[in-house]
Amino acid sequence: MIFTAYFDESGTHAGAELTAMAGFLGDRRQWRKFEKRTGKLFKRFHVDVFHAIDVRRSDKDFAGWSVDRKIEFFDEFQHVINETLESGVAAFLRHEDYRYYCGGSRSAKVATICWQVATDSKSSHSPTPGASVRGRHPPPSL
User: Fold this and answer.
1) What is the pTM of this model?
2) CA-CA-CA-CA torsion for 96, 102, 104, 108, nearest 10 degrees?
3) Sequence spans of domains, the chain
4) Nearest to residue 7, comparing CAs of 27, 28, 21?
5) 99 contact partners, CB below 8 Å, separation of at least 6
6) Is 134 helix (H, G, I), strand (E, B) or coil?
7) Which residues pair with 108 in a beta bridge?
8) Measuring CA to CA, how many Å separate 28 from each of 5, 23, 31, 34, 125?
9) pLDDT, tens digit (0-9, with 9 covering 90-100), for 89-132
10) 67: exposed, middle or buried (C-beta count within 10 Å: 0-12, 13-18, 19+)?
């Protein structure tokens, strides 16, 4: 069986004190179910593109949303994820720990280290940053 994972990172910009990387794993059938159900969810909530930061800031498709509406959306979204996909994973790296263990060297990219922690691997391949979930289509494959 072939699995596809989609990851996104946050906090790799200058001045960030914490980097996070999270993602989800599923096979082709699971991603089709995910796309179908998120498409319906996004249509019902009038969401074209999902970025968590937009929900937090009440920006773009989430402008004017009440806290209750955000909770309702996230509650339904997490049910779709839990009921359709194989697994989810997240990793966090404090920048002071990065500086301590890597000596501040930029040769070891923060996102790559999070990737290794999230996937429990020593692979230096990291996902494309800035991925987003759009309507019925997940971000580009790794």
Assistant:
1) 0.72
2) -110
3) 1-13+21-90, 91-124
4) 21
5) none
6) strand
7) none
8) 11, 16, 5, 10, 22
9) 888 888 888 777 777 665 567 667 777 777 776 554 444 444 44
10) exposed
